[in-house]
Design brief:
The complex is a heterodimer. By secondary structure, chain A is mainly beta. Chain B is globular and about 40 Å long. Chain B is built from no helices and eleven strands. Classes of the chains: A mainly beta, B mainly beta.
Chain lengths: 114, 114
Amino acid sequence: QKEVEQDPGPLSVPEGAIVSLNCTYSNSAFQYFMWYRQYSRKGPELLMYTYSSGNKEDGRFTAQVDKSSKYISLFIRDSQPSDSATYLCAMSDGRGSTLGRLYFGRGTQLTVWP
Amino acid sequence: EAGVAQSPRYKIIEKRQSVAFWCNPISGHATLYWYQQILGQGPKLLIQFQNNGVVDDSQLPKDRFSAERLKGVDSTLKIQPAKLEDSAVYLCASSPNGGAGGAFFGQGTRLTVV
């Protein structure tokens, strides 16, 4: 079983739709959770960072972590064509005074059409 | 604030040749990572440094890959000799001490081995 599972899609939605992306994981020690956006031929861009459980909102983006279910989600409201990218979830258990190794899902490819 | 800088952006080499990649992390970030991203997959950790010490190199193919961060700032990743399966994007990331806020990636170096 992989540490982090993420449906690769592709996911195609009309402009203005609410997008739901999610990942499941197996390691109960994970406590740092991140979502990255990656455009073609670019590096991953950090969108959301969450420590432990709960919700975090930033503009049109909301990240949710449910540690009891080992399930994390990213919601995008009022989606725009510029949101078309691959979305990667990542998580870590921390190591000493560092974030530790990040374990990534394989990414979900999202297309928002006008 | 300047982001993570990487060079070169692209490199094409023949198998059995050697290649080196350079990374300059965000100023003040103690943790530096090298990740390998194969097309269609999430990044996988090669090595993690904390200042100039190695924290995790368990996934680094040490018979051909080496990395150093001599002064605790910038870093070099080397492959010698390269194999066809090393064709991938090599991503450098950095994180502040304690990891709060997540890890930030550079644009990556796209390596093609022919």
